[in-house]
C-alpha cells in the first residue's frame, strides 16, 4: 500500500489539475463566471415579475420568497459544483470513456466528479449567497440561535439533497443512454420547484416533494421556520429541522440507484 | 430544399428515447410553471395581466410544446463549422448556405413540433384543462405564427453563430443571447407580467416573436387585424434577420482562410 498514493491524494491531484487548467485562461474564465451568474439573474427576474403582479403570494411577501430563493440557489449551486459533471455520463457511455474509468482502481463516481469540475460554477454560489444575504436582511428576521443555526445548516443539507437526487436520477442513463432530459426534470426541475412556497402547488404534489423527493427541505420548510411563519400547507414547524434526515435518505437512495445502474452496465461498444 | 428539410426531420427522428425524455421534461416543467402562474392568478382575484386561469394553461402548454421546435437555448453547430473549416463545404454548395441551413432547421423543428408539441399539450390539457378558441381562424393563424417563430429564432441563432468568423469562442455571445431570449421571449413568465417600460423594450426586439406572439394568438389576445399585424411583425423580423445573416456571411467569407489542401 505504501507505494500507492491514497484516494485522497489521487483525487486531490485530479482536482487541482482541473482547476489550474480552467483558471489559466483568465478572460475566458471571467466571462464564464459572469455567464453562470446571469443564469441566477434570469430566475430572479422571473420571481420579481411575479411579485410585480401581486404583493403577496399565499401569505408570503417578496422578501420571504427571496429567502427561499437564496437558500435554494446556494444549495443547488453547491450541488452543481460538486456533481454537475455527472450530466456528462451519457456522453461517457456513448464514447466508451466510462469503460476506461471502470478499469482504474478508483470508484467511478469519484472519477466522474473530478473529471470535469467546473470552477466557474462558483459564480452561481456567490450570487446565490448575495441574494440570501440581502433577503434575510430585508425580511426582518427575529433572530434566535436556533434560526441562525438553521440558516447555516440548510445550504449544506440542500447541497446534499440536490447532489444525491442528481446522482440517483443520472443512474437512469445506464438504462436509457439518451435519457438526459429525464435527469434534467429531476435536477433542474427540482431547482425550479424548490425556490417557491410549496403552498402554490397542489397538496399531493407538495407532499410528494416533501416526503418522497425531499425538495421541501432545501429551502421552503427551513425558510418558513426562519421567518417565523406557520406553514400554510399544514406541516409542523419542527419538520424544518429534519433536513439532515432528508439528506441521509436521498444519499442512501443515490447510493442504491448508482450501484444498481453500474452493476447493470455492460458497455455501449460492439 | 424539401429534401434537405426531410433530411433534417429524419436525422432528429432517429433519437426516439431522447424525444420521449424531452417531452416528459417539458411536461414536468409545465406543471411547475403553471402551478405558480395559477397561484398568482388566484391571488390577484382570477385574472393576472389580462390572463385568466384557462388562458394561463393554454399559454403554458403551448409554450412548453413550442420551446424545442423554436429552440431557445444554446445552439452553435454552424460556429463549430466555421472554427473547424467545414464551412468551406457549405460555401462550395450550389445553393446559398443560409437557405440550406434554414431548410435543415425547419426539418428539425418539424420533427420537434410533431412529437414534442403534442405530448405536453395533451398531458397538460388533461390535467389542467385548456382554453377553447372562440374563432375558427385562431388555430390556422397560430400555425402560421409558430412557423414564423421558428424562422425568427433561426435567424437570431444564425447571427450568433456567424460571429465565429470574428471571435475565437462564441460561448460568451451564446450565453448572453440565451439569457436575453429566455427573459424577453415570454418563456419564464408572459411578457405582459413585466412593468410597462420593460414590456415595451421587449417588443422592440425579435424575442417576443419567438414564443409570446404565437401563444398570444392561440389564447386570442391578438385577434383579427391585430393578429395579422403580429404575423407581419414576425415576417418582418424573418426578412431583416436573414438579410443581416446573408450580409454577415459575405463579410465573414472574405476574411476566411481555411488551412489545408
What's this model, at a glance?
Helix content of chain A is about 70%, strand content about 0%. Chain A is mainly alpha-helical and about 270 residues long. In chain A, helix 1 (about 5-25) runs parallel beside helix 6 and helix 2 runs antiparallel to helix 3 (about 60-85).
Quick tags:
heterodimer; A: 270 residues; mainly alpha; two-stranded antiparallel ribbon; 12 helices; 2 strands; globular; B: 261 residues; two-stranded antiparallel sheet; 11 helices; 72% helix; 2% strand
Care to describe what's here?
Chain A contains twelve helices and two strands, in the order H-H-E-E-H-H-H-H-H-H-H-H-H-H. With about 270 residues, chain A is mainly alpha-helical. The mean pLDDT of chain A is about 90. Chain A has one domain (about 25-265). In chain A, a hairpin with a 2-residue loop joins strand 1 (about 55) and strand 2. By secondary structure, chain B is mostly helical. Chain B has one domain (about 1-255). In chain B, about 70% of the residues lie in helices and about 0% in strands. Chain B is built from eleven helices and two strands; from the N terminus they run ααββααααααααα. Chain B has helices at about 1-15, 15-45, 55-70, 75-85, 85-90, 95-130, 140-160, 170-185, 195-205, 210-220, 225-255; strands at about 45-50, 50. In chain B, helix 4 (about 75-85) runs parallel beside helix 7 (about 140-160). The radius of gyration of chain B is 19 Å and the shape is globular. The relative contact order of chain B is 0.15. The mean pLDDT of chain B is about 90. The chains are: A mainly alpha (about 270), B mainly alpha (about 260). The interface of A and B includes residues 38, 41, 53, 177 and 201 of A.
Amino acid at each position: 500500500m505504501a507505494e500507492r498514493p491514497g484516494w485522497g491524494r489521487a483525487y486531490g491531484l485530479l482536482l487541482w489539475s482541473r482547476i489550474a487548467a480552467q483558471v489559466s485562461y483568465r478572460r475566458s474564465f471571467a466571462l464564464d463566471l459572469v455567464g453562470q451568474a446571469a443564469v441566477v439573474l434570469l430566475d430572479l427576474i422571473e420571481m420579481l415579475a411575479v411579485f410585480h403582479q401581486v404583493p403577496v403570494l399565499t401569505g408570503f411577501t417578496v422578501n420571504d420568497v427571496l429567502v427561499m430563493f437564496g437558500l435554494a440557489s446556494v444549495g443547488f449551486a453547491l450541488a452543481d459544483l460538486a456533481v454537475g459533471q455527472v450530466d456528462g455520463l451519457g456522453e461517457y457511455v456513448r464514447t466508451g470513456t466510462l469503460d476506461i474509468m471502470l478499469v482504474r482502481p478508483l470508484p467511478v463516481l469519484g472519477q466522474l466528479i473530478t473529471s470535469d469540475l467546473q470552477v466557474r460554477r462558483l459564480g452561481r454560489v456567490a450570487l446565490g449567497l448575495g441574494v440570501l444575504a440581502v433577503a434575510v436582511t430585508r425580511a426582518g428576521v427575529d433572530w434566535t440561535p436556533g434560526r441562525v443555526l438553521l440558516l447555516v445548516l440548510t445550504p449544506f443539507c440542500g447541497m446534499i439533497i440536490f447532489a444525491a437526487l442528481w446522482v440517483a436520477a443520472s443512474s437512469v442513463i445506464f438504462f436509457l443512454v439518451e435519457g438526459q432530459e429525464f435527469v434534467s426534470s429531476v435536477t433542474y426541475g427540482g431547482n425550479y420547484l424548490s425556490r417557491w412556497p410549496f403552498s402554490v402547488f397542489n397538496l399531493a404534489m407538495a407532499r410528494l416533494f416533501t416526503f418522497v423527493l425531499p425538495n421541501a427541505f432545501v429551502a421552503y420548510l427551513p425558510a418558513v421556520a426562519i421567518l417565523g411563519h406557520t406553514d400554510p400547507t399544514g406541516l409542523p414547524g419542527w419538520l424544518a429541522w429534519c433536513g439532515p434526515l432528508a439528506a441521509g435518505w436521498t444519499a442512501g437512495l443515490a447510493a442504491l440507484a448508482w450501484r444498481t445502474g453500474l452493476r447493470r452496465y455492460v458497455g455501449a461498444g460492439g | 430544399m424539401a429534401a434537405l428539410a426531410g433530411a433534417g426531420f429524419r436525422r432528429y427522428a432517429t433519437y426516439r428515447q431522447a424525444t420521449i425524455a424531452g417531452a416528459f421534461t417539458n411536461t414536468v416543467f409545465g406543471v411547475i410553471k403553471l402551478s405558480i402562474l395559477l397561484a398568482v392568478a388566484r391571488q390577484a382575484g382570477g385574472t393576472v395581466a389580462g390572463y385568466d386561469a384557462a388562458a394561463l394553461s393554454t399559454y403554458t402548454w403551448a409554450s412548453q410544446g413550442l420551446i424545442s421546435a423554436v429552440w431557445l437555448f444554446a445552439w452553435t453547430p454552424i460556429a463549430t463549422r466555421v472554427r473547424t473549416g467545414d464551412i468551406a463545404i457549405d460555401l462550395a454548395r450550389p445553393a446559398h448556405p443560409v437557405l440550406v441551413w434554414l431548410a435543415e432547421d425547419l426539418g428539425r423543428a418539424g420533427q420537434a413540433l410533431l412529437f414534442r408539441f403534442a405530448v405536453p399539450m395533451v398531458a397538460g390539457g388533461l390535467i389542467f384543462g385548456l382554453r377553447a378558441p372562440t374563432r375558427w381562424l385562431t388555430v390556422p393563424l397560430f400555425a402560421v405564427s409558430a412557423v414564423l417563430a421558428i424562422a425568427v429564432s433561426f435567424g437570431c441563432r444564425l447571427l450568433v453563430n456567424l460571429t465565429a468568423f470574428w471571435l475565437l469562442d462564441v460561448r460568451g455571445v451564446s450565453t448572453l443571447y440565451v439569457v436575453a431570449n429566455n427573459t424577453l421571449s415570454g418563456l419564464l413568465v408572459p411578457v405582459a407580467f413585466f412593468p410597462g417600460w420593460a414590456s415595451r423594450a421587449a417588443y422592440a426586439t425579435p424575442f417576443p416573436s419567438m414564443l409570446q406572439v404565437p401563444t398570444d394568438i392561440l389564447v386570442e389576445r391578438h385577434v383579427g387585424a391585430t393578429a395579422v399585424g403580429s404575423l407581419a411583425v414576425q415576417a418582418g423580423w424573418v426578412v431583416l434577420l436573414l438579410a443581416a445573416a446573408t450580409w454577415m456571411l459575405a463579410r465573414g467569407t472574405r476574411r476566411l482562410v481555411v488551412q489545408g489542401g
